[in-house]
Amino acid sequence: MKKYLLLSLIFFISFSIFSQKKETLIIIESENVKKEISKSEFERIYKKNNDKDKIEDVKTLEEYLELFINFKLKVTEAEEMYLDTLSKFKKELAGYRRQLSKPYLSDKNLDEKLLKEAYEHMKYDVNASHILIKIDEMADYKDTLKAYKKLMKIRKRVLKGEDFAKLARIISEDPSAKKNGGNLGFFTAFQMIYDFEKVAYNLSENEVSYPVRTKFGYHLIKLHKKKKARGKVKVAHIMLGLKSKATKKEIDSTKALVFDIHSRLKKGGDFSKLAEKYSNDKGSAKKGGELQFFGVGRMVKEFEDAAFSLKKDGDISEPIETNFGWHIIKRIKKKNIEEYEVLKPELKRKVSRDIRATKSRKFILKKLKKEYSFKFDEKKLKEFNEVLDTSIFNGDWKIDKAEKLDGNLFSFADKNFSQKDFSKFLFETQSKNLKKIPVSIFIDKKFKIFTDKKVIEYEEANLENKYDEFKYLMKEYHDGMLLFDLTDKKIWTKASKDTVGLKKYYSDNKENFLSEEKVEINIYSCLNEKVLQKTLKLLSKKSKKNFSTEDILYKINKKNKENLKIEEKVYKRGDDNFLDKMKWKDNFFQKKDDKTIIEVKKFIPEKPKKFAEVKGTVTANYQNFLEKKWITDLREKYKITINKSLLSKIKN
Q: Mean pLDDT in the chain?
């Protein structure tokens, strides 16, 4: 947690671009090192972390300069100790780099467009049917064209009036079509593969699409209905399940029981308890029958319709029958589609796991290949048809077969890749039991994967050179991680493990760990002035007569138990204005008002707390002590030179 807190506090992400002209503002040097820090680097970090609109503790330029120098001294020390060469450091920094590079390897405008499109789809539920002709993703052109033409003929038949459902039952290669006539029911965003979903949402009611290609093959889609989304509902249910081969007696007894339970619920029965006792859905039964929020297409139609038909929270359905048995449903809560900005984080997560994510990558690859003048030699690529055979589909292809291929295959930017590079890729990525397709198709697809990979790798490796904001960001993460690692070693871990040092620090600074002055008091609340005067009189004799609090209470309340009430409390300075003005000494009392007397029973002066009581505070203070000492040592070790003329050009 400390690491992420440190990174977020010191280096929250910003994308300001500053001049690359290097004007040295600070020089940090010792016998072994000389580090020059530019004006632009300091100015960028100063303005980013000292934004008056975003932080309360705004520093002056001089104050921030001191903090910045302290930071750079620690980073310089870490580099002198070669902490940035450790494999653990390099691995972690590479992980951060992969995360930070993602926005640069996709198109922001397209990403936002996909998010908004998904949100618009979520606002509606659509009901559609389809006819599927299966085609493998790696199928050749002839098979692909054959499937496309077949569906185009079917489309013409539908447009001439033939029944879509009937044709789906006969022709569709989706096994469920035999039962449902190709009808997929209502669905919403992310429930169908993206290309299918997009076409379905853009159809008008009763319109039939042209063939749509997905990873499953070609689809013909007919839209039946598009309506405003139902939103999501949270329900509890009591389920009495039935086996597929249940006897008539079992069916009748289950039905009788479900209606009996429903009758008990109508008379005020506890839904949760009845669910726990009777429901066969053991996962939800122990939670009173509660299910997670669900929307359209997540439950069987009968259950979904019954759940969404309940008008208000707490309503209970009539018993309904599904393929699973009988259910009684209780509505707990319903919510409509939330605003875009509220759903945006969830949409991002879903899009990143969806095929939509590849759209942005394809777009950026196309853009990069154009930017870097990507070229390939088609003739050189076709030569692989002569050396690659079906052994590649079993993982048995030998790279020796391509040893004579050594020409330039493709190039972009300042990079050239040979046939040998591609041969090596084919050899190293082959695997067993691949579906056999024409070798030429396989080569084309593998070539695209290889070239895409190389273009992305090149772009990723050059982000620092291409984008100043990325370069600065990586520099900040690099320095921030070094700062964390060394601070952990020098301060945090040392303070927590150095028991001897901790106890010595505590012993030398006991005056900083004092308990507060406190008083144990009795508050005498009197019924009236007469009772108050009588109580004061008894309190004045308390020491001499050796009266206890119980004695006073007994004497005053002899005739009326409401005369006097006594409350014991402990107070410290600042808790009560009246008490702060009283004398804090044992056995002292004073009238507060016409009905209240305060008695100080015992004064507890401040004193050093035991080490065990204040170990956390001692550790924190010891860390601060070590930090200050460390800074002093670093400032003695390194010579610091500041270009004050340049500094004066930076505005507060």
A: 89
Stronger pLDDT, 22 or 267, i.e. the higher one: 267
How far is it, in rounded angstroms, from Cα 112 to Cα 443?
Answer: 34
With contact defined as beta carbons under 8 Å apart, do 201 and 186 qualify? Answer: no
Q: Give, in degrees to the nearest 5, the angle at Cα 636 between 630 and 637.
A: 90
Say what angle helices 615-637 and 61-80 make with each other, to 10 degrees.
80
Q: What CA–CA distances, in Å, run from 579 to 6, 536, 568, 588, 602? A: 43, 17, 14, 11, 13
Q: What is the pLDDT of residue 378?
A: 96
CATH says 124-228 is which class?
alpha beta
Give the CA-trace dihedral at 582, 585, 590, 593, to 10 degrees. Answer: 40
- How far, in Å, CA of 129 to CA of 183, rounded? 4
Instruction: Bin 272: left if φ > 0, else alpha if -120 < ψ < 50, else beta.
Output: alpha
Residues 623-638 have a mean pLDDT of: 93
Summarised one tens digit per residue, pLDDT across range 565-602 is: 999 999 888 788 888 888 888 788 888 888 999 898 88
Over residues 523-538, the pLDDT tens digits come to 999 999 999 999 999 9
Tell me 32's DSSP state.
S
Nearest to 154 by CA among 125, 127, 186, 131: 131
What gap in Å lies between CA 56 and CA 376, rounded to an integer? 57
- Interatomic CA distance for residues 72 and 24, integer angstroms: 14
Q: List the single range of 2-6, 69-73, 364-368 with lowest mean pLDDT.
A: 2-6
Helix axes 340-353, 108-122, angle to 10 degrees: 110
Where in the chain are the domains?
A: 124-228, 232-335, 372-463, 518-604
- CATH code linked to domain 232-335: 3.10.50.40
How many helices (H) and strands (E) the chain has is answered by 29, 17
Mean pLDDT, residues 187-215: 95
